[in-house]
Fold this sequence. Notes:
By secondary structure, this protein is α+β, with helices and mostly antiparallel strands. It folds into two domains: 6-135 and 258-297, Trna Endonuclease, Chain: A, domain 1; 149-248, no CATH class. It contains six helices and 16 strands. The protein has helices spanning 6-22, 24-28, 77-87, 105-113, 162-168, 199-205, and strands spanning 34-40, 46-57, 60-69, 93-99, 117-122, 140-147, 152-160, 187-190, 195-198, 215-222, 226-230, 233-246, 250-257, 262-268, 273-278, 283-287. The strands form three sheets. An eight-stranded mixed beta sheet has the order 1-2-3-4-5-14-15-16, sandwiched between helices. It starts with 5 loop residues before the first helix and ends in an 11-residue tail after the last strand.
Amino acid sequence: MKNTGKEYELFVAKLQQAILDSDEFTFKKNIKVEVNKLIEDNCGIERQFDIYWEYELGGLVYKSVIECKDYNSDISVDKIDAFVGKARDIPDLKLVFATKKGYQSGAKKKAEQNKINLLIVREQNDSDWMDENGTPLIKIIGIDFHIKAPPIIRTFNPVVDKEWLEKNTNLDVTKPIKASGMSTEIIIEDVINNNKYSINDLANSLTSSQNEEYGDFTKVEKFEEAYITYSDLRMKLKGYKVEYSIAPPVIERIELDYSKELIGVIEYIEKGKKKTIFSDGIIKERAVKRIHNNNDLR
């Protein structure tokens, strides 16, 4: 498919809009970046510009245009000449040129003579994740969540006071006592320690032994005066034996990949700086070192 350059123009426009929105002054002006703008020159001829925006300050209107070239090679001087010629008969335009790779030395000189700002507008690369000293920056943060399930009670065996049952209830103590209830409905009341809790609360309070983190465990509890109740049944409790299991924790990993949030980079050739633009509106600026290649000598 032929590269029409439209996709790159939209990419540059998106980054430029983010830059304008990040500045308090331009944000208040509600500046909107336009793509494929037609402007009539002094000869009555409509000229097309890839990107355009304007704002008013002190009664004056300031207009800026960006010429975009989605090239895989450095921009030559004739491309700057053509840009100058197109804008010559339109007064008070601030001219900016954007490309993905770089500029030949003749193009840089021509741009400097005509006060054209040169930009390299591109997607991120490995250099954007290095500081000025070449030290790698944090790109991905991995977070491990250890999800620990509460202990599971496998058996709960209460030891009731038989003599108390004979004196205080009509239950036949010679037969097994049958009762059922949800773990939140079976209540243990430790009178001496003024402590009251359900079987569900007991499960949540159980811990592993000192030497093991998970597995099968047993706990025996004795009381001086305590009661167990469920439904309409209440009995004096001497103690209980509970067998329970603790499962190993489940580990879930979440990765925060900041590179996915970096939507693009703008390098300002004259300033020797670059801005990295993130999807959440954060703009970071720092110095950039460019390595000269053979094209710079032309």
